[in-house]
Amino acid sequence: CCGMNGSDSTSGLRQQGQIYDYWHAHADKSNERMDGKPAVEAMLDLLVPTRKLRPRVADIFERERRQIDELTQQQFMVLKMLRSYPRAAIVGGAGTGKTMLAMEKAQQLADAGFRVLFLCYNRSLADWLFGTIGSDNIFVCTYHALIGFTRDWAGLSYGSKLSFDELSVQAPDLLLDATSIMRTSGSGAEDKLFDAIIVDEAQDFEEHWWISLPEMLNDPQNGVFYVFFDDNQRLYTQITSVPMEQSPFHLTENCRNTRHIHATLSPYSQVEEETECNGPEGRPVEFIPATNANAARAALQSVLHRLVNTEGISTNDIIVLTPSSERRSRWKSDQMLGNFVLTWDMDTDMHNAVRVSTIYRFKGLESAVVILSEMDQVRDEIQNQLVYVGLSRARHHVVVIGELPAPTKD
After folding, report:
1. What is the pTM of this model?
2. How many CA atoms, within 13 angstroms, populate the side-chain half-sphere of residue 52?
3. Where are the alpha helices (DSSP H) in 351-396?
4. Which residues pair with 117 in a beta bridge?
5. Is residue 105 within 8 Å of 82, Cβ to Cβ?
6. SS3 245
7. Beta strand pairing status for 340-343 and 336-337?
8. Pair 282, 397: CB distance under 8 Å
């Protein structure tokens, strides 16, 4: 009985009528017929339970991931169009597959023998990209790191001690000086130039940076140049001015997030063009009230216990995001929450470690589960963008500890 499978269950249900008839045929001879139907049904409930077993949330996430991956494949159709355009801008909201397309295009160019420069703004994203697609033919770095590399390649003796802000202002001049030396020095430094440039997170590039970037190409006028951007994710003050003559290609299908996550982040969008989400429905975004620091800590500990110990989700698939820096945040490295330890080290391999990051630093990356916290610390002028970015980092589920600021419209 204990080994009943689906076919056994069906057979047992078919036999219910036979059991009932047998009971009546052998009932008490005193004409007081005993109704055995409840007993038979009780026996069947015991032997053939109708309640369905609920799969682990981790297994549900895996099925959703496979469905999302299938949708992502649809975005590769854009690659066919790019074959006819050596220079183009590709625009899309969060989750539309921009980074994946950029990576695939870089790999295609590298396979064709091109030396490719892959640029982004976020250092954490650059580190991940370097470990994923970095090779002899694909050079991955941030824009600021590029200035340091070109200075070394050209042998420039100045500009090494600039602050981050000073470097942002003087970067184009340094890049122009370096590339000019590389082309004319005869030292072989010209071999460091590139056949193609791909820029991800282009919305965060300063307008004046674009002036010098084409000089990193062997052919500044005709070399391959693609930029991928999303104005909804512009967390900094600059105005994007992407140097492409033709109209951009638009990606309009969210292929990263579930529909529940997409519905929650959509009101924070700052562009009129709407992104559709045809992925799995997923689970509603979860809101846990927390009016003070102690309540927030208790809520986070409880959520982590449920996600990991009850629902089977790996700590590697969970990220705690905050708008606050490590210094200002209540979440500190080595802070214990029950059996879990918090860490701001993105590359940790500690047992039961749960990563914490600023939303800024995690921009461009993604996680199965995102826990948003300290959202009351968001600055008013960028609250839409920061909430949009934070929510859109999650593939399957979002937990908000506290409240989200209400979306505002310009």
Report:
1. 0.73
2. 3
3. 359-362, 383-392
4. 139, 197
5. yes
6. coil
7. antiparallel
8. yes
